[in-house]
Amino acid sequence: MTDNKFICYLDILGFKSRIDEGKFKEGYEWIIKEIVEPFDYPDKVYLLSDSIIIISNDIKDIVNNSFSIYSQALHKGIFIRGGLTKGKINTPQELRESGNKLVIPYLGKAYLKAYNLEQSINTAAIRVDEDILDEINDIKKFLIKFTEIFPKSESNKEKTFLVTDMGNYSVPVSIFTLISEEISNISRHDHDIQKFINTFVLYYRALRHYEREYNVAFNQEEINKKWLNILESLMNLSPS
Known about the structure:
Layout: E1 2-12, H1 15-18, H2 22-36, E2 44-48, E3 51-56, H3 59-75, E4 80-90, E5 96-98, E6 101-103, H4 109-119, E7 126-128, E8 143-146, E9 159-162, H5 171-181, H6 193-214, H7 220-237
Helix pairs in contact: 2-3, 5-6, 5-7
């Protein structure tokens, strides 16, 4: 069956290099057992190694579910990157077994577009397809425009990112805190300082945006302290 639906492709970063690490494996299994499996998904979810694919007719549903997985993973020190779009999706009712082979269905062009969106960014965040912005007005206040400081390619441009779940403006603060705490564990994340910096700046921009747009007061002194801790950690990583 082919339907026109929203799809979010989530990629668990560092999976291949960290799967033997006890804490990472424990966190990954916790995400699957406590976050992914209990959800009451109205449509389809596919789990494949380091990929989580969510499909839904409802944009609010897919935003809440995908962002919950993203934010809860950070509590376990696991970074996720994603792409959200809409398009034609092949949604078979079940996976097919053929002898000793498990046949994973081709999900269609929208899946490939979501995958390419995820691959196009160098930030631990969820990118939203600019082509669908006109039909998702209900969630626009949860999106931020951001040009990456360290893009994947030289031809950088402004991109759209999902930075919170539905209506909870305190989420960017907690995510900024969780990401800043992981800087001391950067060796576990392939020493990818550029991805860290992109993510820090994205969420700092989100904090300032919500302060201006929705008159939300954040503790700037605490945020500044986190920036200083980040700079101290980065300095300690550099050779003396």
